Amino acid sequence: MKPLRIVNVAEIADPGWTFLEQKIHTKDTLWSFHSSTPKYWIERAIKRPNLARLRASLAAGFRARRAAADLIVSHLPRTTLWAAIFSTVFMSRSRHLAFSFNFTDLPKGVNHVLMRYAFKTIDRFVVFSEAERHLYASYFGLDLNRFDAIRWCMDRPRTVAFGAQLPAKYICAVGGEGRDYQSLLSAGRQLPEIPIVIVARPNSLAGLCPSANVSVFTNIKNEEFWGVVQKSSFVVLPLKDAATNCGHISIVGSQIFGKPIVSTYSLGTAEYLQHGYNALMSAAGDSAALGVHIEELWNDDDLHAKLRNNIAGDEQRHSVDNWVAYFDEYLQSIDKT
To answer: How crowded is residue 142: how many other Cβ atoms within 10 Å of its Cβ?
Structure first.
C-alpha cells in the first residue's frame, strides 16, 4: 500500500518542529511541514496582514494538491482558516484535521462569517476541553460530533536557570492569554510578605502598577520561563472570566513539575483543576478570595503537600501518548477509506 501523505501547517512553531511524526506508530507516512513563523524580512516588517501565515497556508494548500496528500493537519484557528481556503482554491481532496483549535477571543464580523464558511470543509477539530466543543460547534454552526476534546499534553519542558536574581522562595504567574493580572496585583498588594514573580507578554500588564513584592519579566527564553515555574512554590493562574478557554499549557506544564495551582474558575479549565484536589479555586475577578487562597497555600505546608501528591497521581493524563493514540486511530480511519 502507498504511504499516507500528510501536510502539517502550524501557526506558532519552530520551523524544525515535526508534530508527532517521530512518535506515532503508523510509520508508513510521508510528511511535509510548513511554519507560520516569519522567515523573510517583509514578514517581520509587516504585521497586518500576517504574511507568514498566508505564505505557509498557501504552501500547504498547494502541496496538498500537488502531492495528492491524504491529510492536512493545521494548528490554531487562523492558520486553519487559510489552509482551508487555499486547499479549496487548489481543489485539494485532502482531509483536514484542525488540531489545537483554540481561541482566546472569538472572532467577530467578517472574520466570523469567513470562518463559518471555511470551517465547513474541515473533517475534524481537536480542542482541549469539553466546554470548547460545545462553544465552537454552536458559534460556527457546525456538528458537535466533528469536535474531539483531548486534554493538552506535553513532554517535560526543558529548563535553564533564570539569569535574573529571584527570591529564595516565591510564587509565580506565567502566560499571557486570557489573564487577569490586575486581580493578582490587587491580591499581591494585600500580601507584601509573599514574593510574586510574573512572566508574561508586555501587553499583559500594560497600565498596571506592581507593588514592591512583585517582579515582572517579559520576552524571556522558553527554557527560562519553565525554569521560573520549576523553582516556584506554586503557580497562580488568574483568568479574565468564567468562560476563558486559556491557560492549558501553563496548567499542564506546572503540573508536570508538581506545582499546585491557585486559579479562578473557568469552564475551559474545569477538567484540569479541581478545588481542594490539585488546586484552590475562586471566582474570576475576586481579588480578595484569590489573595486568601494564595496566603493559605503559602502558609499551610500540609495543604501544599496534599495538592502536590494528588498532582503526582495524574501524570498519565498529560502524557503525549494520549495524542499519539488519537492520531494513530485517526490515520487508520483514513487508511481504510
So the answer is: 16
The rounded distance, in Å, linking the Cα atoms of 204 and 186 is 15
Ramachandran class of 249: left when φ > 0, alpha when ψ lies in -120 to 50, beta otherwise? alpha
pLDDT 10s digits, 140-165: 999 999 999 999 999 999 999 887 88
pLDDT digits (tens, 9 = 90+) for 104-130: 999 999 999 999 999 999 999 999 999
Residue 78 near residue 11 (C-beta atoms within 8 A): yes
The dihedral over CA atoms of 321, 315, 176, 44, expressed in degrees to the nearest 10, equals: -30
Residue 292 has pLDDT above 90, yes or no: yes
The residue among 155, 157, 153, 156 whose CA lies nearest residue 326 is 153
Cβ neighbours for 183, distance < 8 A, ≥ 6 positions apart = 238, 264, 284, 285, 286, 287, 290
What is the tally of structural domains in the chain? 2
Q: Which of 35, 31, 73 is nearest to 55 (CA)?
A: 35
Beta strands of 18-146 (E only): which ranges? 29-35, 71-75, 95-99, 124-127
- pLDDT at res. 162: 84
Query: According to the model, what pLDDT value does residue 47 have?
Result: 87
Q: How many CB atoms lie within 10 A of CB 71?
A: 20
Phi, psi at residue 174, to the nearest 5°? -130, 155
Calculate mean pLDDT across residues 8-17.
86
Domain identity same for 185 and 112: no
Q: Are 331 and 298 contained in the same domain?
A: no
Structure-block grid coordinates of residue 61:
494548500
- Give me 315's grid cell: 501524570
pTM: 0.92
The CATH number for 287's domain is: 3.40.50.2000
| Domain housing 208 | 171-317
Same-domain check for residues 47 and 148: yes
* Claim to verify: residue 39 and residue 124 sit in the same structural domain: yes
- In the chain, the amino acid numbered 153 is C
d(C-alpha 62, C-alpha 76), whole Å: 19
Q: Are 11 and 79 contained in the same domain?
A: yes
Q: Is 228 exposed, middle or buried (0-12, 13-18, 19+ CB in 10 A)?
A: buried
